[in-house]
Amino acid sequence: MPTIPRQVALGSCTSIWTFDAGHPEKTKQVAKIILQEVRAAYPGPYSRYTDFPDENKLVIQAEFLKHYQFAPGVAESVAWDVFRRIADKRLQDMLNKAREAATKSYGDSMLEWKERGAAPRPYDAWIKPGYWPGLVDHWCSDVFASRSQRNASNRANAEGSGATTGSVNMLVHKQRFEQEQGHEPRWQDERHVSLQWV
What we know:
The protein is mainly alpha-helical. Helix content is 57%, strand content 5%. Helix 1 packs across helix 3. It is extended. It comes from Carex littledalei.
């Protein structure tokens, strides 16, 4: 699976939007538009954009291109791959929030969720009542349970925490400092500690 390039640019007619860790506010704006288009054309009880029927993906992509164009020099296949990843991630986030809202509104019983026949507010605006039981069935499926268990296991086995793999937490820094210096860090030692961070 190819990795997301450090900079993949999408542009509007007036400015360039860059998917780059150095410009998270611009990435958020483009991702918001992608999610808006995915929700507007949500075709059924799908948990991933990748699983949408091709004709629905083409509608979503055409709507997106009304607002943005790919920046010069960016391979179209790479840009669409980034688009797909963002759409998958944003849809997954929204469906997770819908599940959390259902737990708060309807309780822990997925059977109760299904009997309600509709997603909790505000998710009912884009998850049509006919789609909700299908999503609940998906969340109850063995495939979903095994994928969820596998992902939880992968996160647990990763070195460090998922978002900060390789980072060292403050407690470890403090312990190392105490071993090296023979005393607890003080505010005067702040410069020394900050220069030692990994």
